[in-house]
Amino acid sequence: MHVVTLITPDGAYGGPVRVAFNQARQLRADGHHAVVAGAVRGYREIPTRLDGVPVRLSKARTVIPMLGFSGLLAPAMLLWMVRHRKTFDVVHVHLARDLITLPAALIALMLRKRLIVQTHGMVADSDHPIAPLLDRILVRPILRRAAAVLYLTEAERAALLRVQPAAAVQHLPNGVPGYEPGPDVGADRVADNDVEVLYLARLQARKRPALFVRAATRLLAQDCAARFTLIGPDEGEGAAVRAAISQSGADEDAIAWEGALPPEHTTERMAAASVYVLPSVAEPFPMSVLEAMSVGLPVVVTESCGLANAVRDSGSGIVVDESEEALVEAIHMLIADRGLRERMSAAARRTATEVFSMAAVARELLTLYADVRSDARQVDRQPA
C-alpha cells in the first residue's frame, strides 16, 4: 500500500504522486498487489482507479489554510487503513511534514505493519515555524521506527540524519517507465523550423517559471526561431508568468502558458516538444526531467538539481548556473544546433532506459519489501 498526500486531476502535488503511481504500476505488472491511498480533490466523482492503478481516495479537508498542502486532512483515509488492515502487509508512505502522511505512518506503526517511508526531499532542513514541533512529536519517532527511510541524493541523506540520526536510511532512485512513441509523435521535433522549448512543471517559486519567460523573451528578441510553452498548475507564480508574457511583446503563440495537464498525458505532450527546460533551484530529483529524458528530449537544468551530474555525465542536456544569462545561452545553443539536439536526444533516451529504468527500481523495492517482511533489515543505519 502506497500513501501520498494529495491527488488532483491537474497533478498539483507533483513528483511524489508520480513516483508512487510509477512504483505501484510496475509492482502490479510484476504480479504483485499494490494500491495507492491519499487525499483527493478536484474530481466530480472520486475515482477508484487512476493510470492503471487501484486507488483508495478520501476527500481532502483544509484544517489549517495557511499551511497549504501541509494543512490538509483526510480522516476517512485513515479510517479506511484501520478497517482494511488485513489487506496489506507493507505500508510505503511518501512522507512530508503534513497531516495526511504523518498520521498514516503512525497508524501503520500502531497496526504493526512494516513501514517504509520515502521523503522525496520533503523532510529536510526547514525554517518553517511549525517544523520543530512536527519533528519532535511526529517526524523523529516515525523515522526512528520505520523499517527503511528512502533517500534520493547524498544531500537528502545527510538532511534526514540531522532530523533523526537513528533513521535506517537506504538509497532508492526514482525510475521512469519506458516510453514507446507512436509513428508520428515527435517526428519533426528536431526540425530547424519548428523548435518548441517546453517548461512542464508546477508554476511554483522554486521552479522559477517567470525566469523561463524572461529567457524566452530575450531569445525571441535575438530572432531565435522557436516557440516557448509552459504547462502546469498555478502554485503561486501564475500572475508573475502572465505579467512576464504580457510584457514580452511576443506573438500570442511565441510564448504561451497552456494551463495544467492531467499527469497521465504529460509524457505524450513532452514527446511533441524539442527541448525541456527546468530552471528550478535545489530540486532534489525531478520526475519531469526523467520523463523528458525518457521521450528523448535534451534537458536544461541547474547545478543544484539532483540530476545535474547524470545529465552532464551522460550528455543528455546542458547544466547551467542559476543566472538568466546561463539559461539563455544554453537554450540558444540547443535551438541553433540541430545536431546537438539530436545527439543529446539519443543520450537522454538511452540514459533513462539504462540508468533510471522503472523495472530496475521495482526490483530494488521488492527486495527491500522482502527484507523488511522477514526483519532482515540490510540498510545503511547510523547509531542513535
Unreliable runs: 376-384
How much of the polypeptide forms β-strand, as a percent range? 15-25%
- Provide the CATH topology of the largest domain: Rossmann fold
Shape, per Cα inertia axes: globular
What count of helical segments does DSSP give?
A: 13
Question: Compute the gyration radius: what is it?
Answer: 21 Å
Write out the CATH superfamily name of the largest domain.
Glycogen Phosphorylase B
Total E-strand runs: 17
From the N-terminal CA to the C-terminal CA, the straight-line distance is 29 Å
Instruction: Estimate percent helicity.
Output: 25-40%
Q: How does this model look, in words?
A:
The chain has 384 residues and is an alpha/beta fold. The protein folds into two domains: 2-175 and 358-381, Rossmann fold (3-Layer(aba) Sandwich), CATH 3.40.50; 195-354, Rossmann fold, CATH 3.40.50. It contains 13 helices and 17 strands. The protein has a nine-stranded mixed β-sheet, sandwiched between helices. A six-stranded parallel β-sheet has the order 13-12-11-14-15-16, with helices on both faces. It has a two-stranded antiparallel sheet with strand order 5-6. Helix 2 packs parallel to helix 3, helix 3 packs parallel to helix 4 and helix 9 (287-294) crosses helix 12 (338-354). Helix 10 links the parallel strand 15 and strand 16 (317-320). It is globular.
Brief account:
The chain has 13 helices and 17 strands.
Outline the secondary-structure elements.
Elements: E1 2-7, H1 15-29, E2 36-40, E3 49-50, E4 53-59, E5 61-62, E6 72-73, H2 75-83, E7 90-94, H3 101-110, E8 114-118, H4 131-145, E9 148-151, H5 154-163, E10 168-171, E11 195-200, H6 209-221, E12 226-231, H7 238-248, E13 255-257, H8 266-271, E14 275-277, H9 287-294, E15 299-302, H10 308-314, E16 317-320, H11 324-336, H12 338-354, H13 358-373, E17 380-381
Helix pairs in contact: 1-13, 2-3, 3-4, 6-7, 6-11, 9-12
